[in-house]
Amino acid sequence: MMPRDDRTVRLPRAERKARGRAFRDRLALQEHAVVAASERDPVEVLERQGASRIPELLAIRHARMASSPFAFYRGAAAIMAEDLRQLPDSGTTTQLCGDAHLDNVGFYASPERALIGDLNDFDETAPGPFEWDLKRMATSFEIAGRAGALDEDVRHRVLEELVRAYASAMRTASRTPAIELFTGRLDVADLLADLEEELPRKVSRRAASAVAAMLRRDSRSAARQLAVRDDDGLRFRSDPPLLVPVHRMVEQGRITAGDAQERLDEVRRRYRESLAPERRRLLDRYRLADAAVKVVGVGSVGLRAWVLLFEGDVKRDLLVLQAKEAERSVLEPAGRAGAYAHQGERVVRGQRTLQALSDVLLGWTSGADPQGRQREFSVRQFRDWKGGVDVERLGPETMPAYARYCGLVLARAHARGGDPAVLTGYIGAGRTLSAALAAFATAYADRNAADHAALLAAIAAGRVEASAS
What we know:
alpha+beta; globular; DUF2252 domain-containing protein; DUF2252
């Protein structure tokens, strides 16, 4: 999967670390401060992305991105990818998240039912220069810090904490036995215990309360929120355009009941084939009760995303899966073959590489849209204790701690996807890189603010539509 000669990892660690230092001749650490000049039109990039999406949902995407500079940034991975490609890169590659920002680090249930923390969004995952993820993460903290009215000194300290934590975790990873690196987890209970003395008591209590709420987020809670039991059994509610069940599409004459069942059976069959045999046995304990199109996220709005409702033999044994359309990663240059022909498989393979422990029902599938075109999807549990930090409530006391955590998470993921010895050789202690990325994040946050203003102007001029629903 990785664009490197795998024989490199069998060289002595000191030699691989020296190779990393040699990459500084290609791109000095100080040069990461640069933001390339660009004349690209951010709205045009969004319009190009929208060409393959559901047209009637694009107004929702635009409205969500227009709500704030940070919301715009969440949906602007393609715009930033174009900008990053204009810069010289370090040549030190890894498997990238592709959309690394502070809201894409979260918590979920491990296979043995512990609440763990890790990256949690992989729609854009692909191999690439490690700094692309780190620059996107750093800029997200700068934008969030501005939104929280943190002063410049605090924002600079936050970025320093992020990069130094990343560098420290990478050094540790380079000395960690491989089996421990690839299986080690970040337990949320341990994390909260470590932070208890550092954070104010009210913040610790709030964090503990948030964790308790996450433990209630499962398929049963999703079904209570999204479905209703009537004479025809358990079915999704209809809340167009945000939630449109298949049975509603049949009633409207958009598809026949027979065609709908045939397509859903094919989606399930292909998904089942992507699972390991023991996971197929788990899936086979459930029958598909209903399916619905559901609008999700910010940047993902307009992509075809389904929720699939399953029932088991035991009362209250419910399973809700999400099948999310996967297109080519924004990191992959047009005209060049990607790592995988099936984009859902790309997402899943990248997620399994970057996460120490992944969803036991993670898989991929394909299905035809109403026009008969095959669409590719990644599949995961819709809710499995999934949650994250309330970004809007991060302040001067909590944001530095969260930045350290995000640096740790990102470094461990990159160490699994690349060579931590090479990466730590290039990065060093992190002081020089920290100063460079602080300058980059400041400049790119300014550009993001201008891009957000351009979207607002395009909406005001009627160039693009925006609607909350």
